[in-house]
């Protein structure tokens, strides 16, 4: 009898061992501005996240782990972003949050994630890590990324007199402007004027007239892709000389900038986290998969979204066996030399919970982006 019971127990143990491991589901909240003023960045960013998820599932690198994305539209509204972050944290029990898209939304919503102890990997341009120690960035800080533009512009264009136009209601665009302005002034380059706008502005007639009358050789614009293009169009129409070089932010690395600006944005110079024509194997795979899925080439925001999920997935994988919020946060702090489509191809999260990877200085030539 003992033998029979022993054999039965052994059979059950072997059967259990041979059963496939039950998939453990990790919920990821994704509040993105699929509509509204920040949709130019959010839609390709969301598409990049979805591309990364397909690659992760196809590769099998997560093993039995299953990532469940809860993608919701903030409508570019900070109150909606706050509501969604609260829902993800408290109701959906998200292990990590990817978002929100913009700095305006992030500074309103992320204190909720910080209070609830949910790790966040945000695409917001500003330094949102100052909200608290549960907040991480998926892309470089504004001042850091703009330094590459400032250095190359100073060396290759030798500007002497500069005007700046920027969003006064967006911390990221203020920081991006200051990143170049501070560098230029340290090199003795004169600031002639600083003009401000708000995100809802659409009529730049008065601003364009003022810019055209300035004695400058360089104009830096720090705002959204579509707004940047409209300012350039209206300034040229108002008589801004073709000899005035126009510099800009990573927002210009958007197909929307080319679509709206047309020939008026030819020759514009800006910095970007991503370059479509990079010949790295990882980028070639990304571009191929993205184009197959969405029938359009990825832009910088698509690449940042793609990278955002890849960073989160690497941390989640390393956070086993619990895969809880605290373990994921701890794992994010250890990300080092992670292959990425951004910058130089290797990403490391620094002590400020911000990635470093380098950047590209691009220009518009023949209606397309190319290295300066």
UniProtKB/TrEMBL annotation:
One example of a Gene Ontology biological process annotation? amino acid transport
Keywords of this protein's UniProt record, alphabetized?
Answer: Amino-acid transport, Plasmid, Signal, Transport
Q: Reply yes or no: does the keyword Transport apply.
A: yes
Leucine-binding protein domain span:
26-367
**Pfam families in alphabetical order:** Peripla_BP_6
Signal sequence extent: 1-23
Q: Which family does it belong to?
A: Belongs to the leucine-binding protein family.
Q: What is this protein called?
A: Leucine-binding protein domain-containing protein
């Amino acid at each position: 009898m003992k033998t029979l019971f022993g054999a039965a127990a052994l059979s059950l143990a072997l059967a259990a061992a041979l059963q496939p491991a039950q998939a453990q589901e990790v919920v990821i909240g994704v509040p993105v501005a699929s509509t509204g003023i920040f949709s130019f960045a959010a839609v390709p960013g969301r598409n990049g996240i979805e591309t990364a998820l397909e690659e992760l599932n196809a590769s099998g690198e997560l093993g039995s782990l299953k990532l469940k994305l809860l993608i919701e539209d903030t409508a570019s509204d900070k109150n909606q972003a706050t509501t969604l972050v609260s829902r993800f944290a408290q109701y959906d029990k998200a292990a990590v949050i990817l978002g929100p898209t913009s700095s305006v939304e992030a500074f309103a919503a992320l204190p909720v994630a910080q209070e609830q102890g949910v790790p966040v990997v945000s695409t917001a341009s500003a330094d949102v890590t100052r909200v608290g120690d549960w907040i991480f960035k998926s892309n470089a800080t504004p001042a850091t990324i703009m330094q590459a533009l400032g250095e190359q512009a100073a060396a290759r264009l030798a500007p002497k007199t500069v005007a700046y136009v920027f969003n006064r209601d967006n911390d990221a665009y203020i920081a991006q402007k200051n990143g170049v302005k501070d560098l230029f002034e340290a090199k003795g380059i004169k600031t002639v004027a600083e003009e401000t706008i708000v995100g809802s502005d659409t009529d730049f007639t008065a601003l364009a007239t003022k810019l055209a009358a300035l004695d400058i050789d360089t104009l830096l614009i720090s705002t959204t892709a579509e707004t940047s293009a409209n300012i350039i169009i209206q300034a040229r129409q108002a008589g801004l000389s073709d000899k005035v070089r126009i510099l800009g932010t990573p927002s210009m690395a958007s197909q929307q900038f080319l679509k709206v600006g047309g020939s008026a944005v030819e020759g514009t110079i800006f910095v970007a986290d991503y370059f479509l024509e990079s010949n790295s194997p990882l980028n070639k795979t990304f571009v191929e998969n993205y184009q197959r899925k969405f029938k359009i080439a990825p832009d910088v925001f698509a690449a940042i979204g793609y990278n955002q999920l890849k960073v989160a997935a690497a941390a989640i994988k390393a956070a086993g066996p619990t895969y809880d919020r605290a373990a994921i946060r701890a794992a994010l702090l250890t990300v080092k030399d992670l292959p990425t489509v951004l910058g130089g191809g290797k990403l490391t999260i620094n002590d400020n919970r911000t990635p470093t990877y380098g950047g590209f200085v691009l220009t518009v030539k023949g209606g397309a982006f190319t290295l300066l």
